Amino acid sequence: MTKKKKLPILSLNKIWLLFTISAIIFSLSLYYKQYLAIYIIHSIVILLIMLVAILPFIFKKYKKKQKLLKIITILLSIALITSGITIYNHNDRLASEGQYIGIDVSKWNGNINLQLAKQEIDFVIIRCGYTSLSDGTTIKEDPLFEQNINQCIQLSIPYGVYYYSLARDETQAKKEADFVTSKLNGRIPELGVFIDLEDEEYQGNLSNQQLANVAVSFLDNIQNENKKGIYANHHWWSTKLTDSRLDNYIKWKARYNDNKVLEDGFSILQYSETGNVKGINTNVDLNLITNKYW
């Protein structure tokens, strides 16, 4: 009489090793995301699951069901590994419907720790550079631009960049745009590139058409970027930036009040300049977007 062939099942030692590795991957993904409370709770739960899964084998109980227990343990291991990888790559807040809070930063915020900040914010808009107020023409890189953008990339934080412009004509605006393109060096910010228009001294006496010419020239000369926009305060949007050509771009408004509601036609609202965020030792601008932004 021929014996039935047994289905190949991993040995107990190999299953134990697989489950241990999967538990470590899952725990490290939570720790990397700085979900510390969740990390501790899940680590305890995983330990209990491991004990429940392995004790029947150790004490040789449920001998008839060992094959089933092994299969269940393997499936648990696969689930933990898959969940760990998903958590590592996932921006959980931006994935669902709702409003999302971000910051915009420059050298004035000093050295920031985005590993801590990401516990409280969903995105970052970084100043790439600015035109010097001393002469109105010299273009300068924000000294913390590379540090900030590299942190965002390493931590998978969605980011955008902006440039503080003093351009008074299309030629100067193009020079500023070319500078931004060179500093991005092929990197494409998910939130886009913005021109910051708000300087009364250099641009306050320009006509609405001239300001629109500056904005359009800057944004049209930004290379390899699918999202482009304009930042200004409520007064400028109401009285100066009224040219219909600007409707073709993302509009980012600064307006500080308790009513955190995006007005029609605007995609980003800067609602505070006195925010407090972990990892940042200064007050910081707070901004709001919705999932419709994407």
Please tally the β strands and state the result: 9
What is the ordering of alpha helices and beta strands? Answer: HHHEHEEHEHEHHEHEEE
**Net shape:** elongated
CATH superfamily of the largest domain: Glycosidases
> Order of strands side by side in the largest beta sheet?
1-2-4-5-6-7-8-9
Q: Report the portion of residues in β strands.
A: 15-25%
Number of domains: 2
N-to-C terminal Cα separation, in Å? Answer: 67 Å
Average pLDDT metric: 84
Specify the number of helices: 9
State the share of residues found in helices, binned by percent. Answer: 40-55%
- For the CA atoms, what is the radius of gyration? 26 Å
Low-pLDDT parts are none
Class of the largest domain, according to the CATH hierarchy? Answer: Alpha Beta
From the 3D structure, determine the CATH topology of the largest domain: TIM Barrel
Judging by the overall fold, what is the CATH architecture of the largest domain? Alpha-Beta Barrel
Transmembrane segments: 12-32, 38-59, 71-88
Organism: Candidatus Erysipelatoclostridium merdavium
GO biological process, one term: peptidoglycan catabolic process
Family: Belongs to the glycosyl hydrolase 25 family.
